[in-house]
Design brief:
Elements lengths: L2 E10 L2 H10 L5 E5 L5 E7 L5 E7 L3 H11 L10 H15 L3 E9 L3 H9 L8 E6 L5 E7 L8 E3 L21 E9 L4 H12 L3 E4 L3 E5 L4 E6 L5 E7 L1
Parallel strand pairs: 1-4, 5-8, 9-12
Antiparallel strand pairs: 1-5, 2-3, 3-4, 6-7, 7-8, 9-13, 10-11, 11-12
InterPro entries: Glyas_Bleomycin-R_OHBP_Dase, Glyoxalase-like_dom
Protein name: Glyoxalase-like domain-containing protein
């Protein structure tokens, strides 16, 4: 397995206000765009070590209300291998139903599809590996593939962009001196902590750097994931590299 920390998804109430807030905190923020789901839009904070933060906001429109109703009646299933249902549950569902703050994170599969098949060998239930694409403002089409485990505690995974994409050097320089995301901590409800740790061991092939009764830290090819015993709700926090 050749997995590394890629990005964190941070939900805000209003995208423009979210951008201003992170600019005040010394980050260089790049405007992203509107997603094809019709519900969300984003901005990006890129770092020198290759990680980034996706600032995500829900758009105020009729499709948002309709999609939220579909989630509330259980139309989308979290355990569906279908890209439509599985990805909607993961990405749009969290944006609509989770409180503001960090709602998700992603690992980069630097070995591409090989990493997906390694996960399948370990019997981790996931969606199918699915092709994605995005049209850049300069007309270039970026493509990649993505899959997500059914467990809400595990990260989703993407392959590298093709052709390779690099942010503008000026967008990697932040006034606060931060160079990247070093560690992502996941806070698991106490009654699910042991099961979540076992899921991570199965998913990451037991790449444990440290463990005690309160947390287990997994070492990735780049970066770390700390699975921590929390309270009653799923939560996240970032440790930065400066």
């Amino acid at each position: 397995m050749a997995l590394q920390l890629d990005h964190v998804v941070l939900l805000v109430e209003n995208l423009d206000e979210g951008i201003k807030q992170y600019q005040k905190e010394g980050f260089k923020v790049s405007k992203g765009g509107k997603h094809n789901n019709g519900v969300t839009e984003n901005a990006l904070i890129h770092f020198k070590n290759g990680t980034f933060i996706e600032i995500l906001a829900v758009r105020k429109r009729w499709k948002t209300k309709w999609t939220k109703l579909l989630f509330q009646i259980g139309y989308f299933k979290a355990d569906s291998q279908s890209p439509h249902s599985g990805f909607q549950q993961r990405f749009v569902g969290r944006a609509l139903l989770f409180p503001k703050g960090i709602i998700d994170f992603c690992l980069l599969a630097t070995a591409g599809e090989q990493d997906f098949w390694e996960v399948q060998k370990r019997k981790v239930p996931t969606t199918h590996l699915t092709s994605m694409q995005r049209l850049k403002p300069d007309g270039q089409v970026l493509t990649w593939k993505i899959f997500t485990p059914f467990s809400m505690y595990l990260p989703f995974v993407m392959t590298p962009y093709e052709p390779p994409f690099s942010p503008l050097p000026a967008n990697l320089e932040h006034e606060n001196g931060i160079k990247g995301i070093e560690k992502l901590s996941v806070y698991i409800p106490k009654n699910n902590f042991e099961n979540a740790v076992q899921s991570y061991k199965q998913f990451l092939d037991k790449q444990i750097a440290y463990s005690d009764e309160e947390k287990v830290v997994f070492q990735l090819e780049k970066g770390q994931i700390a699975v921590c015993k929390g309270d009653v709700h799923l939560g996240f926090s970032i440790s930065y590299l400066s």
